[in-house]
Amino acid sequence: MTCPLCATDAPLIATPVSGGPADASAPLCVICVTQIASDSPDPAHFRALASTMWSEDPAIQVLAARVLAKLQEPWARDLAEQLYLDDETRVWADNVPQQTNHRDSNGQPLVAGDTVVLIKDLPVKGGGFTAKRGTAVHRISLVADNPAHIEGRVEGQRIVILTEFVKKR
């Protein structure tokens, strides 16, 4: 299939688009997913944005606006100025979660409100139970002063979890 963001023929993965509707996602190639998460995406990969940014899918429009804003290239600034988004989509595009140093076991960035899955059985100190591998922890909170810790509710109890033992869902 063709990636709706970079126009490359590759297998696509449903990728959540943050900051908007809870179920918003876009089918993207693995390279786009990696590049979007990068602090300095490869401008050459996104040259097709000149045509794909006009997609009728709001999630693709939002991703195109965010990528163009990240790229430090004159052509990207020109395209960003040309991109028309309705008011609701513009608010969504500008609602970028704040970057943190919190990362899961695979290096994926974590933001408050994410859902993570435990990758190992974890004994809960003072809780008297073990949080089992595969347990989903919904709506996590980030520990502001320690990027290795997140907080979440497991078996009805709020616990601190090391990020090295979770993967983003």
From TrEMBL:
Hydrolase as UniProt keyword: yes
Residues covered by the Protein YjdM C-terminal domain: 102-168
Hydrolase recorded as keyword: yes
Molecular-function GO terms, alphabetical: hydrolase activity
InterPro entries referenced in this protein's UniProt entry, alphabetically: YjdM_C
Keywords: Hydrolase
Protein's recorded name: Phosphonoacetate hydrolase
Organism: Sulfitobacter brevis
